[in-house]
UniProtKB/TrEMBL annotation:
Membrane topology: Multi-pass membrane protein
Cellular component terms per the entry's GO annotation: membrane
Biased composition (Basic residues): 131-141
Region (Disordered): 130-175
Source organism of the structure: Thermobifida fusca TM51
Protein name in UniProt: DoxX family protein
The entry's keywords: Membrane, Transmembrane, Transmembrane helix
Biased composition annotated in UniProt, kind: Pro residues: 166-175
Amino acid sequence: MGILRTQARRLLGVPFVMDGVSVLRDPTPRAQQLAPLIRNLALRYPSVPNAPEALARLHGIIGVLGGALLCFGRAPRTACALLAVQSVPTVLTELRTFREGRPDDLGGHRAATAKDLSLLGALVLSATEPKRKRCSRKHRQQTTGMVQHLRAMPQRPRGRRQASPLPVPIPRPRR
């Protein structure tokens, strides 16, 4: 199961890398999308800068960095937590756009919102997955001893018990 989880994490990082690269190439659409959220945060908290384009670039850098970490299998929990925090503003803006959008665009916004919410859920699941414990040397020795003991035991027939064959004379072929 470990190989499957590793490959799934790598696949989870791909959309974030692609989205981050597109934001770094052209940050204005993402900046316009994030501008109302950033404006509200800047009014409430003076430490948050009111610079949507700079924050959109930071959003892209975090996406590329976290997605690359996931794709290469380095620090997967940290990368998932970083990407989950990074995707919260995107989910919030998608929900806002979905609520305030035109009726003819609802299908596309619904699909984008569902995709972003499912990616956020997958990131949270992957970040909070319990760490596997490695077997200690003592446990391995005990297990190996038990296996050797079981192999040394006489084998019993498996399946249905068969009746002993009756002494029936077998005719010899004629020459």
